[in-house]
Design a protein that fits this description.
Elements: H1 14-23, H2 29-35, H3 43-49, E1 61-69, E2 72-79, H4 85-98, E3 103-106, E4 110-118, H5 123-132, H6 134-144, H7 146-150, E5 154-163, E6 174-182, H8 189-207, E7 210-216, E8 224-231, H9 243-259, H10 261-281, H11 286-297, E9 307-311, E10 317-324, H12 338-347, H13 352-375, H14 379-394, H15 400-411, H16 417-428
Antiparallel strand pairs: 1-2, 3-8, 4-6, 4-7, 5-6, 8-10, 9-10
The structure holds NADPH dihydro-nicotinamide-adenine-dinucleotide phosphate (NDP).
Length: about 425
């Protein structure tokens, strides 16, 4: 879409939002038929995706607005069940947009495969033997997946580690071969697994050991994406809280997460609140992204904050997020799930590298949304107001009752299912 600024989108009805999307000429009639249909994922398609299928499990799909990243506008498809996430991301994206937008970069698309070798008579000699044949092994890996070379990717590098060398190690000694592969626009799990499996017999020959595991690592440390934003304090002013107060509160909140795993885990969950919905909506493997993100947050030996917040010499708030991003724009279920295909169309990204950068920018926005709320009014004020609708529905409210009961819960400051049930009974009398 040309712009991600759609003023008033929040206050439209679902029907009005759908009409607006239809009028934008972004989707074909077939696209919107899928997007707006009662069962967008056909049961036959679902049955081909996983085993033992009995149905599908829909989630709300909302649009994160206002995102300006490296000067380009992005509308973010977000599939999530938790209220306030989409609103918070869009709110922060507007603040960052007014401050010039996010800047992002990526290190490339190099994923990691691991081959485990045990029982080598001499582990150091085995390591040297593998490294001496590095070029031959890379060529063999490429031969196992030749189409990747044609796409400009392929096996790039190889490394060997020896684990558990210490005499008192409680685990057995092993040699681990790391295979680094540029998987282009694919996440690359199947590609890497195919390559790793193909190398196993050669590696056994070279090491005189026995190969067991041959599998992708979900911590692709050579496939990082980074996002940054710089916000003048006056743009952070909230109610009676000055911009400087909010900026300092965000930095204090970051320092708490940076120094305490008990806080970091919740801080990082808030970041994944932004990341998972776009990863899911784009048909990507969110467990892989989650696992990689948390491993990166613990890379120095202690689990810590994924983001960093600081103050620059002009007094601006500076936010940074770096994460491994094993996602794709092709492969897996991306071109199978009809809504995932439309999510890619909406995002209008040209490559997995670009998508990875958009995802970390959304994660950074989500983190600031949570920290800004926590450092000022507290998270419950906004969250519970939005949550009140779910509480009303859980208590049995339907139709016009939902708004009415949700408003009463907010007015009476009692956003509980028990209270909502009382109100539903009262309404029905
Ligand atoms: P695929 O096996 O689907 O491979 C990618 C496909 O995309 C290839 O067939 C390739 O075609 C095609 N393709 C088209 N255009 C491009 C392009 N520009 N760049 C790269 N490939 C292109 O998917 P992945 O290897 O990405 O594996 C992802 C799946 O694996 C996910 O579903 C994931 O859940 C799952 N998985 C995850 C694991 C983990 O996380 N540990 C383990 C095992 C599986 P061509 O063949 O012609 O090159």
């Amino acid at each position: 879409m040309e712009t991600s600024r759609i003023p008033g989108f929040y206050n439209m009805t679902v029907e009005e939002r759908r009409q607006l999307l239809t009028s934008m000429d972004l989707f074909t009639e077939d696209d919107t038929a899928y997007l707006f249909s009662k069962q967008p994922l056909a049961i036959d398609t679902a049955d081909n995706m996983i085993e033992n299928v009995i149905g599908t499990f829909p989630l709300p799909l909302g649009l994160g607005l206002n995102f300006l990243i490296n000067g380009k506008d992005y509308v973010i498809p977000m599939a999530i069940e938790e209220p306030s996430v989409v609103a918070s991301a869009s709110h922060i994206a507007k603040i960052v947009r007014d401050a010039g937008g996010f800047t992002t970069e990526a290190t490339g698309r190099v994923m990691t495969g691991q081959i485990q070798v045990v029982g080598c008579p001499d582990f150091h000699a085995a390591k040297e033997a593998v490294l001496r044949k590095k070029d031959r092994l890379l060529e063999a890996a490429d031969n196992a997946y030749p189409s990747l070379l044609n796409r400009g990717g392929g096996a790039e590098d190889l490394d060997v580690r020896i684990l558990n060398e210490e005499a008192d190690s409680k685990y057995g000694q092993m040699l681990i071969v790391h295979l680094y592969v540029d998987t282009r626009d694919a996440m690359g799990a199947n590609m890497i697994n195919t390559m790793a499996e193909s190398l196993a017999p050669v590696i056994e020959d070279l090491t005189d050991g026995k190969v067991y595991l041959r599998i992708l690592s979900n911590y692709p440390e050579r496939c990082l994406a980074r996002a940054r934003c710089v916000i003048p304090p006056n743009r952070l002013q909230t109610g009676e809280f000055s911009g400087e107060y909010v900026r300092d509160g965000v930095i204090h909140a970051y320092e708490f997460a940076a120094s305490d795993p008990y806080r970091a885990v919740t801080h990082n969950k808030g970041i994944m609140n932004g990341i998972d919905p776009i990863v899911i909506a784009t048909g990507n493997d969110w467990r892989a992204v989650e696992a990689g993100a948390h491993a990166h947050a613990a890379r120095d030996g202690m689990y810590t904050s994924m983001t960093a917040w600081s103050r620059d010499e002009h007094g601006n708030l500076v936010g940074e997020l770096e994460l491994p991003m094993s996602i794709g724009t092709v492969g897996g279920s991306i071109r199978v799930h009809p809504i995932a295909k439309l999510a890619h169309k909406l995002l209008n990204v040209d490559s997995a590298e670009e998508l990875a950068q958009v995802i970390v920018a959304v994660g950074l926005a989500q983190n600031l949304g949570a920290l800004k709320a926590l450092a000022t009014d507290g998270i419950q004020k906004g969250h519970m107001a939005l949550h009140s609708r779910s509480v009303a529905i859980a208590a049995g409210a339907t139709g016009e009752m939902i708004d009415m009961i949700s408003q009463r819960l907010i007015d009476e400051n009692e956003i509980r299912v028990g209270k909502a049930k009382e109100l539903v009974e009262e309404y029905k009398k």
